[in-house]
Specification:
Structural class: alpha/beta
Largest sheet: 8 strands, mixed
Shape: globular
Number of strands: 8
Strand order of the largest sheet: 1-2-4-3-5-6-7-8
Number of helices: 12
Radius of gyration: 18 Å
Strand content: 15-25%
Length: 304
């Protein structure tokens, strides 16, 4: 089957923001191909999924990519960055695009957004893949001091001349901000830090770095990212469709994944060996293979 073609980017006005999206249309004889919607995490954009992951599914499904507000080509309103707000944006986008039923895949903060969409609209989100999502109800703090990986990360950061607050409960935001600043230095440290954070040198470019720092400086996003959602693991037990919790075994958010695995009946859980938080970017072939397996064997995606 030939790969799909782009349906074109468009801005969808939700009332609170203008959300950029892209559809990749499969070249298939199916009159109504399956829909897969991908939602990226913080300090990146739809490019996180595009080349290695979205295109791999474009031969079997219509793929929709969304830039979260404040990211990519979406607008940057002064507030509204909690997960329920971003979920409302996503719901408006899929409604405007006419997606009646879709498989939903999110990474990190984008997975938290996807969880809100799926729980609020289970009639439309027919499967949910949560990739390395942190639930604040399970992990209210994400500090290095409390992480089993903390000493190793601290040592490697110090080797790059980067000092971090080990007690900061939002280490994820802290390290993304360090990464943005180092990227703008245009120094050799940028590549080394990207390799440490994401095992890749493609996570953040200069434009994304500038956008991330401006977002934190000019909006309420920093505070809202720190208190993003009240969702609990119990809430996930109410989701009636196939659920995939996919984590990196070396990720600081693995505690959330293991809690979901223990407490949500029927969840499909995998922890990828030797993988960190950004493994969809650093190990896309493995991500695609395992996601495809879940979608075809448990979520009803047909390969034609």
């Amino acid at each position: 089957m030939a790969p799909g073609g782009e349906g074109g980017m468009r801005l969808v006005a939700t009332g609170a923001a203008d959300i950029n999206c892209l559809q990749i249309i499969p070249q298939t004889e199916q009159k109504q191909p399956a829909d897969i919607v991908f939602v990226h995490g913080l300090a990146t954009n739809m490019a996180f999924w595009y080349a290695s992951i979205a295109m791999a599914f474009s031969s079997v499904a219509r793929v929709t990519l969304i830039d979260l507000r404040g990211h990519g080509r979406s607008s940057t309103p002064p507030s509204g960055y909690r997960a329920p707000d971003l979920a409302a944006d996503a719901v408006d986008v899929v409604a405007r695009l006419g997606l009646e039923r879709f498989h939903l895949v999110g990474h990190s903060y984008g997975a938290l957004v996807a969880a809100h969409v799926a729980l609020e609209h289970p009639d439309r989100a027919i499967s949910l893949t949560l990739t390395d999502m942190r639930l604040p109800s399970v992990q209210p703090s994400l500090s290095l001091a409390q992480s089993r990986l903390g000493p190793e990360i601290i040592s490697r950061l110090e080797g790059l001349g980067i000092t971090v607050d080990t007690e900061d409960p939002e280490f994820g935001l802290q390290i993304l901000t360090h990464l943005a600043r180092v990227t703008l230095e245009n120094s050799e440290r940028a590549g080394a830090l990207q390799k440490l954070v994401a095992n890749s040198n493609r996570l953040m470019g200069r434009r994304v770095a500038k956008q991330w720092l401006a977002l934190l400086e000019n909006t309420t996003a920093r505070d809202e990212f720190s208190k993003p959602s009240d969702l609990s693991v119990h809430d996930l037990t109410e989701y009636p469709h196939p659920l995939f919790a996919f984590y990196g075994r070396r990720s600081m958010t693995l505690k959330t994944g293991t809690a979901i695995a223990r407490q949500v009946p029927g969840v499909h859980f995998e922890a990828l060996p030797k993988a960190g938080h950004f493994f969809p970017s650093s190990r896309p072939l493995e991500f695609v293979r395992r996601l495809r397996g879940f979608l075809t064997t448990q979520a009803g995606l047909e390969l034609r």
